[in-house]
Amino acid sequence: MPERRVTVTTEVGIQARPATNFVDTAAESSAPIYLAKGSGEPVEAKSILQVLVLDVRQGDEVVITGDDEKTLDKLVALVTGEQGDDTASATDDTSRSRDLGDDERD
């Protein structure tokens, strides 16, 4: 079974919203997808509880395994920050908050 071994580089690792995005992406595949932290036991990557229990943080090495190479590549992009969607959203929200604050002062 193909696997990807990668170091998590996103600031919050696979916690909260990133974990939800990770599980949702894994669920897009009809093939089983597994996630392991380091050399630990793999868990079902489509289960939010199992993924959260791993407590994956920035700098941790993870192994993502499954027969769907396209999904594996998407999951690697999520944990390495190669996708700009979440970063762009956070930046947009911050800018919007600053803009609202400026309007209130006028």
Question: Secondary-structure blueprint of this entry?
Answer:
Layout: E1 3-7, H1 16-27, E2 33-37, E3 43-44, H2 48-53, E4 61-66, H3 69-80, H4 85-105
Antiparallel strand pairs: 1-4, 2-3, 2-4
Q: What percent of the residues sit in helical stretches (DSSP H or I)?
A: 40-55%
Distance between the termini: 61 Å
* Percent in strands: 15-25%
What order do the strands of the largest sheet run in, or round the barrel if closed? 1-4-2-3
The total count of strands amounts to: 4
Gyration radius (Cα, Å) is 16 Å
Tell me the overall shape: globular
The largest sheet, given as strand count, sense and whether it forms a barrel, is:
4 strands, antiparallel
Low-confidence stretches: 85-106
Give the number of helices: 4
Which structural class best describes the helix and strand composition? alpha+beta
Mean residue pLDDT? 84
Give helix and strand order, one letter per element, not per position: EHEEHEHH
Could you characterize the architecture of this molecule?
A hairpin with a 5-residue loop joins strand 2 (33-37) and strand 3 (43-44). By secondary structure, the chain is α+β, with helices and mostly antiparallel strands. The protein is globular and about 30 Å long. Helix content is 48%, strand content 17%. The protein has helices spanning 16-27, 48-53, 69-80, 85-105, and strands at residues 3-7, 33-37, 43-44, 61-66. The model is unreliable at 85-106 (pLDDT under 50). A four-stranded antiparallel beta sheet has the order 1-4-2-3, covered by helices on one side.
